[in-house]
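Page 37, continued from 36.
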């Protein structure tokens, strides 16, 4: 990668280092978080089969109309992904912060998912 985009390169290196350790199985899938400047996305992924079990994002119509702060939106996404995971029969996950710092929106999503019933 070019040096012109150092932040993205740094995140990519951290992401590779995390993914060496964090691996989702069918019993304990991976909860992956992606955040852009405006939106936040969460997926529960089974890496053994390479399938996405459930997703939640602020791009969905039910969240697009809400006018709240980004941290509040990430809390809503955390609660939603926890509810959808429990409906799919998933209680425990492995958290993949995807190279982002465990701070701010990523942290609020994780805490809301824990409050929603997911264990990680």
């Amino acid at each position: 990668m070019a040096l012109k985009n150092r932040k993205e390169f740094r995140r990519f290196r951290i992401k590779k280092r995390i993914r060496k350790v964090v691996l989702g199985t069918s019993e304990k899938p991976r909860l992956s978080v992606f955040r852009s400047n405006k939106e936040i996305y969460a997926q529960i992924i089974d890496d053994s089969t390479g399938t996405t079990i459930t997703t939640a994002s602020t791009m969905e119509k039910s969240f697009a109309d809400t006018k709240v702060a980004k941290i509040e939106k990430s809390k809503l996404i955390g609660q939603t992904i926890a509810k959808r995971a429990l409906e799919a029969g998933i209680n425990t996950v492995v958290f993949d912060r995807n190279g982002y710092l465990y701070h701010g929106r990523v942290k609020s999503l994780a805490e809301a998912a824990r409050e929603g019933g997911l264990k990680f």
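The radius of gyration is 14 Å. Flag for discussion at group meeting. The helical segments are 6-19, 61-64, 70-87, 105-115.
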